[in-house]
Amino acid sequence: MKLDRFSHIPYSHRVGRYHFQMVQAKLSTPVEPIFGYSLQPYYTRQRQWMTDLSDSLSRLYRFFADLDKAAREFDPSRPNSAINQRAVASSAPESAAVQADFRAANGAHRLRIVSLASGQSHTSKALPGDAPAVVAEGLQQFVLRMGEQEERFTYYAKATHSHADSLRSIAEAMRSSSLVDVRITAQDQSVALTVSSRRTGAAQSFELRDVAGNTIRSLGLDRIANRAKDAIFLWDGKQHTSPSNQVALADGAVQLSLHQAGTSDIAIEIMPDMERLLRHTRMLLNGYNRLHAFLAEQPPMLATQKLDAFTRVAQTAGGTLGRYGFHVQQNGQLALDESTWHEAVAANFSGFAKAMAELSRSFREEIVRVQNKPFASFSRPYQAAASPNPYGQATASVMQLHFAARTGLFFNQLW
After folding, report:
1. Are residues 200 and 125 in the same domain?
2. What is the rounded radius of gyration, in angstroms, for the C-alpha atoms of the chain?
3. Residues in CB range of 264: below 8 A, 6 or more apart
4. Which of residues 272, 301, 335 is at a domain's end?
5. What superkingdom does the record give (predicted)?
Protein backbone atom coordinates (compact mmCIF):
# COMPACT_ATOMS: atom_id res chain seq x y z
CA MET A 1 0.00 0.00 0.00
CA LYS A 2 1.24 3.49 -0.85
CA LEU A 3 1.41 5.76 2.19
CA ASP A 4 -0.86 8.71 1.85
CA ARG A 5 0.76 10.91 4.46
CA PHE A 6 2.33 10.75 7.86
CA SER A 7 1.29 13.46 10.26
CA HIS A 8 3.76 14.68 12.86
CA ILE A 9 2.52 17.36 15.27
CA PRO A 10 5.40 19.43 16.63
CA TYR A 11 5.64 19.93 20.33
CA SER A 12 5.51 23.72 20.01
CA HIS A 13 2.31 23.51 17.98
CA ARG A 14 0.52 21.46 20.61
CA VAL A 15 1.48 23.58 23.60
CA GLY A 16 1.90 26.97 21.94
CA ARG A 17 -1.38 28.17 23.39
CA TYR A 18 -0.06 27.71 26.92
CA HIS A 19 2.63 29.54 28.84
CA PHE A 20 5.01 27.22 30.66
CA GLN A 21 7.49 27.89 33.34
CA MET A 22 9.88 25.17 34.38
CA VAL A 23 10.89 25.15 38.06
CA GLN A 24 12.48 22.66 40.39
CA ALA A 25 10.05 20.07 41.69
CA LYS A 26 9.57 19.57 45.36
CA LEU A 27 11.30 16.35 46.28
CA SER A 28 11.34 14.51 49.57
CA THR A 29 15.12 14.78 49.80
CA PRO A 30 17.33 17.77 48.89
CA VAL A 31 18.90 17.56 45.44
CA GLU A 32 20.85 19.82 43.18
CA PRO A 33 18.71 22.02 40.91
CA ILE A 34 17.84 20.37 37.60
CA PHE A 35 18.58 22.53 34.62
CA GLY A 36 18.12 19.91 31.89
CA TYR A 37 17.21 16.28 31.23
CA SER A 38 17.70 13.68 28.51
CA LEU A 39 14.91 12.68 26.09
CA GLN A 40 16.83 9.65 24.86
CA PRO A 41 14.53 7.15 26.63
CA TYR A 42 11.53 8.90 25.10
CA TYR A 43 12.96 8.76 21.59
CA THR A 44 13.82 5.09 22.14
CA ARG A 45 10.21 4.40 23.08
CA GLN A 46 9.03 6.43 20.11
CA ARG A 47 11.17 4.41 17.70
CA GLN A 48 9.90 1.21 19.27
CA TRP A 49 6.33 2.43 18.85
CA MET A 50 6.98 3.18 15.18
CA THR A 51 8.52 -0.26 14.69
CA ASP A 52 5.58 -2.00 16.34
CA LEU A 53 3.06 0.02 14.35
CA SER A 54 4.84 -0.68 11.07
CA ASP A 55 4.93 -4.39 11.85
CA SER A 56 1.26 -4.41 12.76
CA LEU A 57 0.30 -2.52 9.61
CA SER A 58 2.40 -4.85 7.47
CA ARG A 59 0.55 -7.85 8.89
CA LEU A 60 -2.78 -6.03 8.55
CA TYR A 61 -2.19 -5.37 4.85
CA ARG A 62 -1.26 -9.00 4.28
CA PHE A 63 -4.56 -10.07 5.85
CA PHE A 64 -6.32 -7.49 3.68
CA ALA A 65 -4.61 -8.86 0.57
CA ASP A 66 -5.70 -12.43 1.39
CA LEU A 67 -9.29 -11.36 2.04
CA ASP A 68 -9.39 -9.23 -1.11
CA LYS A 69 -8.04 -12.10 -3.23
CA ALA A 70 -10.67 -14.47 -1.84
CA ALA A 71 -13.44 -11.89 -2.35
CA ARG A 72 -12.49 -11.40 -6.01
CA GLU A 73 -13.44 -15.02 -6.70
CA PHE A 74 -17.10 -14.09 -6.13
CA ASP A 75 -17.11 -11.06 -8.40
CA PRO A 76 -19.51 -11.85 -11.29
CA SER A 77 -17.80 -9.27 -13.52
CA ARG A 78 -14.58 -11.31 -13.59
CA PRO A 79 -14.86 -14.12 -16.20
CA ASN A 80 -12.31 -16.34 -14.47
CA SER A 81 -13.72 -16.00 -10.96
CA ALA A 82 -14.90 -19.11 -9.12
CA ILE A 83 -18.54 -17.98 -9.21
CA ASN A 84 -18.39 -18.01 -13.03
CA GLN A 85 -16.72 -21.38 -13.52
CA ARG A 86 -18.73 -24.26 -14.97
CA ALA A 87 -18.29 -28.02 -14.69
CA VAL A 88 -19.56 -30.47 -17.31
CA ALA A 89 -20.68 -34.07 -16.80
CA SER A 90 -20.99 -36.35 -19.86
CA SER A 91 -22.37 -39.87 -20.17
CA ALA A 92 -19.89 -40.63 -22.97
CA PRO A 93 -16.72 -38.54 -22.62
CA GLU A 94 -14.92 -40.79 -25.12
CA SER A 95 -17.39 -39.73 -27.85
CA ALA A 96 -17.49 -36.01 -27.17
CA ALA A 97 -15.63 -33.59 -24.92
CA VAL A 98 -17.59 -30.56 -23.72
CA GLN A 99 -16.31 -27.33 -22.19
CA ALA A 100 -18.43 -24.43 -20.92
CA ASP A 101 -17.33 -20.92 -19.97
CA PHE A 102 -18.92 -18.39 -17.61
CA ARG A 103 -21.59 -17.42 -20.18
CA ALA A 104 -23.02 -20.93 -20.40
CA ALA A 105 -26.39 -21.47 -18.73
CA ASN A 106 -26.66 -24.29 -16.24
CA GLY A 107 -28.85 -27.18 -17.38
CA ALA A 108 -29.10 -30.63 -19.01
CA HIS A 109 -28.61 -31.26 -22.75
CA ARG A 110 -28.71 -34.14 -25.22
CA LEU A 111 -26.13 -34.71 -27.98
CA ARG A 112 -26.12 -37.23 -30.84
CA ILE A 113 -23.22 -37.36 -33.29
CA VAL A 114 -24.44 -38.54 -36.71
CA SER A 115 -21.13 -38.18 -38.57
CA LEU A 116 -17.74 -36.56 -38.10
CA ALA A 117 -16.19 -33.93 -40.32
CA SER A 118 -13.39 -35.13 -42.57
CA GLY A 119 -11.04 -33.80 -45.21
CA GLN A 120 -10.48 -35.08 -48.73
CA SER A 121 -7.55 -37.27 -49.76
CA HIS A 122 -6.21 -38.82 -52.96
CA THR A 123 -3.79 -41.77 -52.90
CA SER A 124 -1.62 -42.90 -55.81
CA LYS A 125 -0.93 -46.46 -56.95
CA ALA A 126 1.25 -48.42 -54.54
CA LEU A 127 4.21 -49.95 -56.40
CA PRO A 128 7.63 -51.24 -55.37
CA GLY A 129 10.01 -48.37 -54.85
CA ASP A 130 12.58 -49.67 -57.32
CA ALA A 131 9.98 -50.33 -60.02
CA PRO A 132 10.24 -48.22 -63.20
CA ALA A 133 8.34 -44.94 -63.09
CA VAL A 134 4.94 -44.95 -64.78
CA VAL A 135 5.18 -41.23 -65.49
CA ALA A 136 6.35 -40.39 -69.02
CA GLU A 137 9.66 -38.63 -69.51
CA GLY A 138 9.53 -34.88 -69.99
CA LEU A 139 7.99 -31.75 -68.51
CA GLN A 140 5.10 -32.52 -66.18
CA GLN A 141 2.54 -29.92 -65.18
CA PHE A 142 -0.70 -30.40 -63.26
CA VAL A 143 -3.22 -28.21 -61.42
CA LEU A 144 -5.01 -28.45 -58.06
CA ARG A 145 -8.38 -26.70 -57.81
CA MET A 146 -10.26 -26.19 -54.53
CA GLY A 147 -13.38 -24.07 -54.91
CA GLU A 148 -12.27 -20.84 -56.56
CA GLN A 149 -8.61 -21.35 -55.63
CA GLU A 150 -6.14 -22.91 -58.01
CA GLU A 151 -2.48 -23.92 -57.68
CA ARG A 152 -0.21 -25.07 -60.51
CA PHE A 153 2.81 -27.39 -60.09
CA THR A 154 5.64 -28.26 -62.46
CA TYR A 155 8.54 -30.73 -62.43
CA TYR A 156 10.66 -32.68 -64.93
CA ALA A 157 10.42 -36.51 -65.13
CA LYS A 158 13.53 -38.41 -66.18
CA ALA A 159 13.59 -41.76 -67.94
CA THR A 160 15.98 -43.14 -65.33
CA HIS A 161 13.59 -42.37 -62.45
CA SER A 162 12.24 -45.22 -60.38
CA HIS A 163 8.73 -45.18 -58.95
CA ALA A 164 10.07 -43.84 -55.62
CA ASP A 165 12.08 -41.13 -57.44
CA SER A 166 8.96 -40.04 -59.30
CA LEU A 167 6.93 -39.76 -56.09
CA ARG A 168 9.67 -37.72 -54.44
CA SER A 169 9.75 -35.31 -57.39
CA ILE A 170 5.96 -34.81 -57.14
CA ALA A 171 6.12 -34.29 -53.37
CA GLU A 172 8.90 -31.72 -53.79
CA ALA A 173 6.88 -29.84 -56.41
CA MET A 174 3.75 -29.74 -54.19
CA ARG A 175 5.56 -28.75 -51.00
CA SER A 176 4.75 -25.07 -51.64
CA SER A 177 1.00 -25.71 -51.61
CA SER A 178 -1.10 -23.79 -49.06
CA LEU A 179 -4.16 -26.00 -49.55
CA VAL A 180 -3.00 -29.61 -49.22
CA ASP A 181 -0.41 -31.75 -47.48
CA VAL A 182 1.63 -34.37 -49.32
CA ARG A 183 3.26 -37.43 -47.80
CA ILE A 184 4.85 -40.65 -49.06
CA THR A 185 3.77 -43.83 -47.29
CA ALA A 186 5.43 -47.21 -47.40
CA GLN A 187 3.93 -50.64 -46.77
CA ASP A 188 6.10 -53.72 -47.15
CA GLN A 189 8.09 -53.03 -50.37
CA SER A 190 5.48 -50.72 -51.92
CA VAL A 191 5.35 -46.90 -51.72
CA ALA A 192 2.48 -44.53 -52.49
CA LEU A 193 1.80 -40.79 -52.49
CA THR A 194 -1.13 -39.30 -50.50
CA VAL A 195 -2.47 -35.79 -51.11
CA SER A 196 -4.90 -34.59 -48.41
CA SER A 197 -6.61 -31.32 -47.59
CA ARG A 198 -5.27 -29.44 -44.59
CA ARG A 199 -8.70 -28.76 -43.10
CA THR A 200 -11.93 -30.71 -42.77
CA GLY A 201 -15.35 -29.91 -44.18
CA ALA A 202 -17.21 -30.23 -47.46
CA ALA A 203 -15.73 -26.95 -48.67
CA GLN A 204 -12.26 -28.56 -48.66
CA SER A 205 -12.97 -30.89 -51.59
CA PHE A 206 -10.49 -30.55 -54.46
CA GLU A 207 -9.54 -32.05 -57.79
CA LEU A 208 -6.21 -32.81 -59.49
CA ARG A 209 -5.88 -32.54 -63.27
CA ASP A 210 -3.01 -32.89 -65.75
CA VAL A 211 -2.08 -29.86 -67.85
CA ALA A 212 1.04 -31.28 -69.51
CA GLY A 213 2.24 -34.88 -69.18
CA ASN A 214 0.48 -37.78 -67.47
CA THR A 215 1.39 -37.52 -63.77
CA ILE A 216 -2.16 -37.50 -62.34
CA ARG A 217 -3.67 -40.08 -64.72
CA SER A 218 -0.77 -42.53 -64.63
CA LEU A 219 -0.57 -42.58 -60.80
CA GLY A 220 -4.33 -42.61 -60.24
CA LEU A 221 -4.26 -39.35 -58.24
CA ASP A 222 -7.50 -38.24 -59.92
CA ARG A 223 -9.48 -40.75 -57.83
CA ILE A 224 -10.81 -39.70 -54.39
CA ALA A 225 -9.83 -42.00 -51.55
CA ASN A 226 -11.75 -40.10 -48.82
CA ARG A 227 -14.36 -37.48 -49.63
CA ALA A 228 -14.58 -34.21 -47.67
CA LYS A 229 -17.72 -33.79 -45.57
CA ASP A 230 -19.14 -31.74 -42.71
CA ALA A 231 -19.93 -33.02 -39.24
CA ILE A 232 -23.61 -33.63 -38.53
CA PHE A 233 -24.93 -33.72 -34.97
CA LEU A 234 -28.10 -33.10 -32.97
CA TRP A 235 -28.06 -30.77 -29.95
CA ASP A 236 -31.25 -30.98 -27.89
CA GLY A 237 -33.00 -32.50 -30.89
CA LYS A 238 -31.98 -29.77 -33.36
CA GLN A 239 -29.68 -30.74 -36.24
CA HIS A 240 -26.45 -28.80 -36.79
CA THR A 241 -23.63 -29.08 -39.32
CA SER A 242 -20.04 -27.96 -38.93
CA PRO A 243 -17.00 -28.07 -41.21
CA SER A 244 -14.90 -28.94 -38.16
CA ASN A 245 -15.15 -31.41 -35.31
CA GLN A 246 -14.51 -28.50 -32.96
CA VAL A 247 -17.89 -26.84 -32.56
CA ALA A 248 -18.95 -23.67 -30.72
CA LEU A 249 -22.53 -23.33 -29.46
CA ALA A 250 -24.46 -20.60 -27.63
CA ASP A 251 -22.30 -17.84 -29.10
CA GLY A 252 -19.14 -19.65 -28.08
CA ALA A 253 -20.20 -20.32 -24.48
CA VAL A 254 -20.16 -24.11 -25.07
CA GLN A 255 -17.31 -25.84 -26.93
CA LEU A 256 -17.79 -29.37 -28.35
CA SER A 257 -15.03 -31.70 -29.50
CA LEU A 258 -16.59 -34.50 -31.53
CA HIS A 259 -14.62 -37.76 -31.41
CA GLN A 260 -16.92 -40.62 -32.34
CA ALA A 261 -20.23 -40.95 -34.20
CA GLY A 262 -23.03 -43.05 -32.77
CA THR A 263 -26.75 -43.78 -32.82
CA SER A 264 -27.56 -43.05 -29.17
CA ASP A 265 -27.89 -39.77 -27.31
CA ILE A 266 -25.17 -38.49 -24.99
CA ALA A 267 -26.43 -36.88 -21.77
CA ILE A 268 -24.56 -33.68 -20.91
CA GLU A 269 -25.11 -31.51 -17.83
CA ILE A 270 -23.61 -28.05 -17.33
CA MET A 271 -23.42 -26.98 -13.70
CA PRO A 272 -21.48 -24.68 -11.37
CA ASP A 273 -18.02 -25.92 -10.43
CA MET A 274 -19.08 -26.90 -6.90
CA GLU A 275 -15.68 -28.19 -5.81
CA ARG A 276 -13.89 -24.99 -6.73
CA LEU A 277 -16.73 -22.87 -5.37
CA LEU A 278 -16.61 -24.59 -1.97
CA ARG A 279 -12.82 -24.26 -1.84
CA HIS A 280 -12.98 -20.51 -2.42
CA THR A 281 -15.88 -20.14 0.02
CA ARG A 282 -13.66 -21.68 2.69
CA MET A 283 -10.84 -19.33 1.69
CA LEU A 284 -13.12 -16.29 2.03
CA LEU A 285 -14.26 -17.34 5.50
CA ASN A 286 -10.73 -18.16 6.60
CA GLY A 287 -9.48 -14.81 5.31
CA TYR A 288 -12.15 -12.92 7.24
CA ASN A 289 -11.66 -14.98 10.42
CA ARG A 290 -7.89 -14.43 10.39
CA LEU A 291 -8.39 -10.68 9.92
CA HIS A 292 -10.99 -10.63 12.70
CA ALA A 293 -8.71 -12.47 15.11
CA PHE A 294 -5.77 -10.20 14.28
CA LEU A 295 -7.73 -6.98 14.81
CA ALA A 296 -9.15 -8.32 18.07
CA GLU A 297 -5.59 -8.85 19.35
CA GLN A 298 -4.28 -5.43 18.27
CA PRO A 299 -6.42 -2.71 19.93
CA PRO A 300 -3.51 -0.96 21.72
CA MET A 301 -1.50 -0.57 18.54
CA LEU A 302 -4.20 -0.15 15.88
CA ALA A 303 -6.28 2.02 18.14
CA THR A 304 -8.52 3.69 15.57
CA GLN A 305 -9.15 0.61 13.42
CA LYS A 306 -12.45 -0.68 14.81
CA LEU A 307 -14.07 -4.00 14.05
CA ASP A 308 -17.52 -2.45 13.72
CA ALA A 309 -17.65 -2.26 9.92
CA PHE A 310 -16.32 -5.77 9.31
CA THR A 311 -18.44 -7.21 12.12
CA ARG A 312 -21.54 -5.53 10.71
CA VAL A 313 -20.81 -7.01 7.27
CA ALA A 314 -20.29 -10.46 8.78
CA GLN A 315 -23.51 -10.30 10.78
CA THR A 316 -25.45 -9.20 7.71
CA ALA A 317 -23.90 -12.04 5.76
CA GLY A 318 -24.84 -14.49 8.50
CA GLY A 319 -28.47 -13.45 8.11
CA THR A 320 -28.61 -13.31 4.31
CA LEU A 321 -26.48 -16.41 3.77
CA GLY A 322 -27.87 -18.32 6.73
CA ARG A 323 -29.90 -20.53 4.42
CA TYR A 324 -26.63 -21.54 2.74
CA GLY A 325 -25.01 -22.75 5.96
CA PHE A 326 -23.31 -19.52 7.11
CA HIS A 327 -23.57 -18.42 10.74
CA VAL A 328 -21.76 -16.02 13.04
CA GLN A 329 -20.07 -17.58 16.07
CA GLN A 330 -20.04 -16.08 19.56
CA ASN A 331 -16.52 -14.72 19.02
CA GLY A 332 -17.69 -12.84 15.91
CA GLN A 333 -16.11 -15.17 13.36
CA LEU A 334 -17.95 -16.84 10.48
CA ALA A 335 -18.54 -20.59 10.22
CA LEU A 336 -19.96 -22.80 7.46
CA ASP A 337 -22.09 -25.94 7.54
CA GLU A 338 -20.90 -27.65 4.37
CA SER A 339 -23.74 -30.18 4.10
CA THR A 340 -26.30 -27.36 4.22
CA TRP A 341 -24.17 -25.40 1.78
CA HIS A 342 -24.16 -28.21 -0.80
CA GLU A 343 -27.92 -28.71 -0.68
CA ALA A 344 -28.83 -25.01 -0.71
CA VAL A 345 -26.41 -23.98 -3.47
CA ALA A 346 -27.53 -26.86 -5.70
CA ALA A 347 -31.15 -25.82 -5.17
CA ASN A 348 -30.68 -22.05 -5.66
CA PHE A 349 -27.34 -21.21 -7.22
CA SER A 350 -28.43 -17.82 -8.58
CA GLY A 351 -29.49 -16.65 -5.11
CA PHE A 352 -26.21 -17.81 -3.62
CA ALA A 353 -24.20 -16.07 -6.35
CA LYS A 354 -26.05 -12.80 -5.77
CA ALA A 355 -25.61 -12.94 -1.97
CA MET A 356 -21.90 -13.83 -2.21
CA ALA A 357 -21.32 -11.04 -4.73
CA GLU A 358 -22.82 -8.57 -2.24
CA LEU A 359 -20.73 -9.96 0.63
CA SER A 360 -17.47 -9.83 -1.34
CA ARG A 361 -18.28 -6.30 -2.55
CA SER A 362 -18.84 -5.15 1.05
CA PHE A 363 -15.57 -6.71 2.20
CA ARG A 364 -13.64 -5.11 -0.65
CA GLU A 365 -15.19 -1.68 -0.01
CA GLU A 366 -14.10 -1.82 3.64
CA ILE A 367 -10.61 -2.95 2.64
CA VAL A 368 -10.24 -0.05 0.19
CA ARG A 369 -11.57 2.41 2.78
CA VAL A 370 -9.00 1.32 5.37
CA GLN A 371 -6.12 1.11 2.89
CA ASN A 372 -6.75 4.69 1.78
CA LYS A 373 -6.21 6.02 5.29
CA PRO A 374 -3.00 7.91 6.07
CA PHE A 375 -0.32 5.89 7.80
CA ALA A 376 -0.57 7.85 11.04
CA SER A 377 -4.34 7.48 11.29
CA PHE A 378 -3.96 4.02 12.82
CA SER A 379 -2.83 5.46 16.17
CA ARG A 380 -4.44 7.72 18.78
CA PRO A 381 -1.97 10.62 18.28
CA TYR A 382 -3.55 11.37 14.89
CA GLN A 383 -7.02 11.64 16.40
CA ALA A 384 -5.73 13.80 19.26
CA ALA A 385 -4.44 16.57 16.99
CA ALA A 386 -7.47 18.75 17.62
CA SER A 387 -8.37 17.39 21.05
CA PRO A 388 -9.50 20.01 23.65
CA ASN A 389 -7.37 18.23 26.26
CA PRO A 390 -4.00 17.55 24.70
CA TYR A 391 -2.62 15.88 27.84
CA GLY A 392 -5.16 13.08 27.74
CA GLN A 393 -3.68 11.59 24.58
CA ALA A 394 -0.49 9.70 23.80
CA THR A 395 0.97 12.32 21.50
CA ALA A 396 4.64 13.16 21.23
CA SER A 397 4.21 16.43 23.16
CA VAL A 398 2.28 14.77 25.97
CA MET A 399 4.90 12.05 26.26
CA GLN A 400 7.50 14.80 26.65
CA LEU A 401 5.34 16.39 29.33
CA HIS A 402 4.99 13.15 31.26
CA PHE A 403 8.68 12.40 30.96
CA ALA A 404 9.58 15.86 32.25
CA ALA A 405 7.23 15.56 35.19
CA ARG A 406 8.57 12.15 36.17
CA THR A 407 12.18 13.31 36.10
CA GLY A 408 11.68 16.10 38.62
CA LEU A 409 10.17 18.85 36.48
CA PHE A 410 6.66 20.16 36.25
CA PHE A 411 4.70 22.53 34.06
CA ASN A 412 2.71 25.43 35.51
CA GLN A 413 -0.28 25.96 33.24
CA LEU A 414 -1.39 29.61 33.01
CA TRP A 415 -4.76 30.09 31.34
Report:
1. yes
2. 40
3. 112
4. 272
5. Bacteria
**How many independent structural domains does the chain possess?**
3
pTM, full prediction: 0.65
**pLDDT at residue 414, rounded to an integer:** 40
SS3 357: helix
- In order of 123, 171, 200, 225, the CA distances from 195 in angstroms are 6, 9, 14, 10
In this prediction, residues 32-49 reach a mean pLDDT of: 62
Residue numbers of the domain that contains 253: 86-117+230-272
pLDDT of residue 227: 93
Q: In terms of domains, do 136 and 112 share one?
A: no
Average pLDDT over residues 187-201: 92
Q: Are residues 98 and 138 in the same domain?
A: no
Crossing angle of helices 349-371 and 40-72, rounded to 10°: 160
Q: Is residue 286 part of a domain?
A: yes
Q: Say if 69 falls within a structural domain.
A: yes
Q: What is the mean pLDDT of the chain?
A: 80
d(CA 29, CA 60): 50
- Residue 55 CB burial class (10 angstroms; 0-12, 13-18, ≥19): exposed
Instruction: Mention every residue, 6+ apart, whose C-beta is less than 8 A from residue 115.
Output: 229, 231, 232, 261
Q: Let me know whether 174 and 205 are in one domain.
A: yes
Cα distance between residue 213 and residue 335, in whole Å = 83
Q: What is the pLDDT of residues 106-132, one digit of tens each?
A: 899 999 999 999 999 999 999 998 999
Separation CA 23–CA 27 (nearest Å): 12
State whether 161 and 203 are in the same domain: yes
